[in-house]
User: Fold biotin carboxylase from Micromonospora sonchi.
Amino acid sequence: MIESLLVANRGEIARRIIRTAKRLGVRAIAVHSEADADLPFVVEADEAVCVGPANPAQSYRNTEAILAAARSTGAQAIHPGYGFLSENADFARTVEASGLIWVGPGADAISAMGDKINARNLMAAAGVPVAPGTTEPAADLAAAAAAANEIGYPVMVKAAAGGGGMGMGVAADEAALRTEYDKVRSFAERMFGDGSVLIERYFPRVRHVEVQILGLADGRVVALGERECSVQRRNQKLVEESPSPAVSPELRSRLLAAAVRAGEAVHYRNAGTVECLLVPRQRDFKGDGSGVDEFFFLEMNTRLQVEHPVTELVYGLDLVEQQLRVAAGLAPTFDPDALTPRGHAIELRINAEDPKRFLPGPGAIRTWVEPTGEGVRVDSGYVAGNTVTPFYDSLMAKLIVHGASRTEAIERARATVAAFEITGPKQNLPFFAELLENGEFTSGDYDTAIVSRMR
Assistant:
């Protein structure tokens, strides 16, 4: 096992990785910005190094400072968490060239999946379903319009180098396409340094379902079930659950097999997620539950996902432990041929934001009381007395519940939302209280527009 691990991240995910590292007897090293000096992940690490001011470009994305911290502390490996440098192929290569262990997929896999057009083409070649779309960047508006006419409106206009729900727009006709193409291209050049644009079929009613994969040290790729991620605002997830209430055993078999093929196509190692759009077809409702759903590859996230805890609770695994074992060349702690899911898990992302308009609302935390009890887990980045600053993502904590059934998990989620006390910054607990009573959500028959219908 790795003996010392530098966590190149912050907040709840850094704290969560540090927790597993310490349980395994691995020396945990934190890096932090000046703004985060008093957060729990810094205090709980065995050693901590300040790598710069609040601006992420000068701290959490400062590769030179992070590598210098690794050298000065004698770190053996680097875990990037999610966001920041986690999907930066150049950083992964630099880490390994420095003689350190990179806890994540290989740089080639990150590069291959980092460009959405290249990823689509690779997946299509591997027999993974992809939505109708362009196989090369739309070089200009004329090319985008020609592609949209061939695909059929409405279309999604996407930044090829984008991620995290950013750099996307929907066009219902050519007039809207002109606006969205310029907007997405400009945003992509500014945010990602790459203005390449992809045109893809847009499905007005769709569900967002993803599969957790793990590429093992022996070369095998295994699928650890699916997660439903359709409760979103601004194309960004708020709630995840596993298993998906929309996925039948037959569809699950096809989804997981496609995800494994996707991983094998890029010789995937370590943890990753294959994200798909699930498009309901017309059901015949003969009383036997029959009906077929179509799914398409959306993208592959070459890192640990925010929502990984729901998979951990359903499968009884610690995915960070499995990541460390793969990186060290060790076998997993479970039998890949005997994976048995149990029960149902739901994760709620507790953000410092207005529960109606979802606008950020940072501030000092006066009260922070986490719920406890059977089947309840809270992965948090803050405690009372800390301040949620405006410099980073608004995620404060993840509230995860597990029950024997979806009904039990929802009941447990209602109780824990009511018991979670936060005062100071704005927070979205009232939204979750509303969602958990929403008939569309509780029925399981919802899609990515559920939040807009609630507002």
Observations:
- Residues 174-192 form the longest helix (19 residues).
- Residues 282-291 have pLDDT under 50 and may be disordered.
- DSSP finds 15 helices and 20 strands in the chain.
